[in-house]
Write a structure and sequence with these properties.
The chain is of the alpha+beta class. It contains two helices and five strands. It has a three-stranded antiparallel β-sheet with strand order 1-2-3, with no helix packed on it. Strands 4-5 form a two-stranded antiparallel ribbon. Helix 1 packs antiparallel against helix 2. The chain is globular.
Amino acid sequence: MKKAEIKLNVGLDDNNVPETIHWSSTDGESAEELPAKAMFLALWDAQYKNSMRIDLWTKDMPYDEMKRFFYETIQTMADSFLRSSGGDPMAEKVIADLRDYCAHFADKMEVLENK
């Protein structure tokens, strides 16, 4: 079985607030650590039937970028859910509602630039 390792390194200040986030993967295009300003990590615990999450962002993450990060994350979660649903018509309807919400979020938070 092929394996890949994903590493996260978080630099903290004296108050344990993230100052830097770097990540790397043994299966990526490059083995070097790459910088990031924020991350959401969600894992499913099958034994306890719940999710385990880590949400981190550096203290210099601009608010406008955080709004865009949330918007893109919600959109990506919708894509992932559709791929995993196996063509379930109900999933497609619900995800359409989620995409409507994403459009509302983007509008209210002024995430997307007007063209």
